[in-house]
Amino acid sequence: MGGVVGGPFWVFIGCFLLALLWRVLNPSFLHRAARDGSPGLARLLIEAGADLNATNKDGTTPLYIAVFLEHGETAKTLIDAGAKLTITDKDNVTPLHSAVAKEDLTIMTALINMGFDINVKDQNNMTPLHAVVTKGDMEMTKALISAGADLNCKDKGGNTPLDVAASEGHGDIVKALIKAGAHVNPVDQGGKTPLHEALYKGYPDIVKTLIKAGADLNLADKVGNTPLDVAATEGHGDIVQTLIQAGAYPNPVDHEGRTPLHEAAKRGNPDVVKALIQAGANINATEKRRQTPLNLAVAQGHGEVVKVLADAGADLNVQMSAGATPLHIAASNGHLDVVRILIDAGTDLEARNSFGLLLPYIS
């Protein structure tokens, strides 16, 4: 009788223990310990044989979760136990990328010291150095540089860490990267250099740092824009002066045949126009549609720029493809103040366009 009763009982106990063991060794428990930040539980599970590198449905390991949630002690426990450092999630993000995203210097340093590949790339080909530079974290940047991070690696857009630092306005990091040996003139997929990036955002101090480090002042991007074109287009008068004084060529031509003076005139920036003229810009340069800087300024109604150009000797009667002169353009657009400026400057009142027409009627 006792044997009959005892048999099922021990079978039950055996099944219970097997179920318990399965639950202990189930990856979800170690993931839960990582999620909850419980190094003690993690150690018990590891000692019981839990798989350190098991992945959940999202493709993440316990180490990735611990790092992502900033559970440093738990992450260290997993690392010390031998968790693989090269495992990524479904987006190819590694524990190191996660540590960087959380700006956790302690975990990042631990991963590096354990031999983690510091140049590993995510789905956008960004390395940890790209990421810390984007955040502007100088301490983590220095740590990665000291560990031997590739200073010139490129992401999917062809951007190096220096491109990123220049674009984000992180001047101290720009200096640190250059001092460490970063190339000053890398070209991204659009043909832009770090100098272009700094100019688009208007960071004069970074521009000066790059120039001092040997940035190419006349390198054009894929649409023909040099750094001076960018500065003129964006209206950065002080930076225009800096570039010119450093030796930038004042008459580069982009794919539309326009010079920096065309861009400055079109945007109505008299200070930039004056600086370019003083630097030797061709005041009567024509682009593909035969428009001069004066034509563009007149069309936009930029009276102050028109006066600067007229006073500097711009051709007041230059004709476009349809034979229209600046006076025709000003009158057609109703820019009466510009018409007066041109008349006072001595424009030809009898000039006719290609159709033999004089000025349109102005109310």
UniProtKB/TrEMBL annotation:
Coiled-coil region: none
InterPro entries on file: Ankyrin_rpt, Ankyrin_rpt-contain_sf
SUPFAM superfamilies registered for this protein in UniProt: Ankyrin repeat (SSF48403)
ANK repeats: 25-57, 58-90, 91-123, 124-156, 157-189, 190-222, 223-255, 256-288, 289-321, 322-354
Gene3D superfamilies the record matches: Ankyrin repeat-containing domain
Keywords: ANK repeat, Membrane, Repeat, Transmembrane, Transmembrane helix
Presence of the UniProt keyword Membrane in the record: yes
TM ranges: 6-25
Protein's UniProt name: Uncharacterized protein
Organism expressing this protein natively: Candidatus Synechococcus spongiarum SP3
Lineage start: Bacteria, Bacillati, Cyanobacteriota, Cyanophyceae, Synechococcales
